[in-house]
Design a protein that fits this description.
This protein has 1 helix and 3 strands, in the order βββα. The chain has one domain. The chain has a 3-stranded antiparallel β-sheet with strand order 1-2-3, with helices on one face. By secondary structure, the protein is α+β, with helices and mostly antiparallel strands.
């Protein structure tokens, strides 16, 4: 007899991050695609701030996924 695991599993978090500088606007732009479908984007005055924003966004996405699997 075969039993399947009915526990909800976390999806694999695949990330596509793009970061570039716009000399016209004098700011960094970033895009982040998570789970191959959800896109997030932002701008920042420095590369450090842009990377911090990306980090915060990834943490938020992971927290949402944890809530989803524990519903």
């Amino acid at each position: 007899m075969s039993e399947t695991n009915s526990a909800k599993c976390r999806q694999n978090l695949n990330l596509d991050i793009k970061l570039w500088f716009s000399p016209i606007m004098n700011e960094y732009h970033w895009t982040l695609i998570t789970y191959e479908t959800d896109m997030h984007a932002g701008t920042a005055p420095s590369v450090e701030k842009a990377l911090a924003d990306v980090n915060t966004t990834i943490e938020h996405v992971m927290a949402q996924e944890n809530v989803r699997i524990h519903e």
